[in-house]
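Worked problem 6 (solution included).
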Amino acid sequence: MTSLRKTESRTQPVQKRAQERRNLILDVTAELLDEVGQDDLTTILVAKRAGVSVGTLYHYFPNKYAIMYALAEQWVNEMDVALQRLEAVQIESYSVKRFVEFSVETMLATYTNQQGLLPLVQAMYGVPELKELDLIHDDLIIDSMARMFRRMDISSKSNELARLGRTYLEVTHALIIVVVNQNKTDAEKTLRDLKHLNLSLLERAKSQF
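Solution. The predicted structure is:
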């Protein structure tokens, strides 16, 4: 028993250091995606910025797409947390306008916190190794929005709820990407436009229900 405890006490710091190094590689990759884009991103650049050898980096990730996959997976998980936070609220008591404000601001905070987001989502859409996560990301948002729209009596038809969820996703995703890359004045205007578009979409759907 004593020997087992000693082994566990030695293993835990090693595992902690390994996780910290893995997180560092992901953080560095996000920084480099902002600086050089995914086409010019290399494992050599990542290793140099992270202060590790290329051999050490390969111990964690076999190539740059594996790093980007882990980064994209992290992004999808963050989005899942944001959606769970939205669904946990008693939105049945919200007006459509209040819901739009709340949901867009929640999404914006999630997007703003992800460094290297634009090249990452472009890679998720265009790189075959990451396409699976792009589909998971979209389905996650569409399904969550459809559930919330049903709770708000915007529609009761599954096909219509899915259509509204996809429209909400496409409009919100596209314009928030623009917002996080604009100067403050333009970003505020684009954000108002986004909220107006989403409000019009949902109010029209609710009036037809």
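Discussion: Residues 1-62 form a domain with the Arc Repressor Mutant, subunit A fold (CATH 1.10.10.60).
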